[in-house]
Amino acid sequence: LPTIATSTTKWSSGAHDEDAADRSDLSDIDVVELPTGQFHEPKCNYSVHLVNRFGPILNRQVNIGEPLYHRWKCSYGSENANIYCMVIQNCTVTDARATSPNVQIIDNAGCSLFPKLIPNIVYHSDLEAGMSVTAFSLDIDTVSALKLVVSSTIS
């Protein structure tokens, strides 16, 4: 196992052992102090567009079969700073009155659970994702609510 050193503790062969006589001498290793900083949380928006990602934002009821585009976009000031990366996961649908149980359509890994009906999400950049679908209805009444989780990770 590799030897790991920190600024306050020495580890040998993956086990903490301060009294070991055969411990590797790590006094020659420079410990790098990583800079710390505060980063503003990204501002994220979810929108549904007609036809594609450049289409008008949906502001009316749709009919089953109409082409739609679900878009997630985040921003934190500088698009090219490469600090955050978005992951869409755990999406569910339910009826307008929320009387039926939620139906999960995107799992916790971000994969579609119904790939013939709902494609996997396409990531256009670290801060923008979307998917093209046609409006559909499940065994529940009219589907109108979409709950999702957007995770942002520091890269």
Automatic annotation (TrEMBL):
InterPro entries: CUT_C, Cuticlin, ZP_dom. Residues 1-155 form the ZP domain. It comes from the Eukaryota. The keyword Signal applies. PROSITE patterns: ZP_2 (PS51034). Signal peptide: none annotated. Keywords: Signal. It holds the Pfam family CUT_C. Residues 1-12 have a biased composition (Polar residues). Residues 1-23 are annotated as: Disordered. This is ZP domain-containing protein. It comes from Syphacia muris.
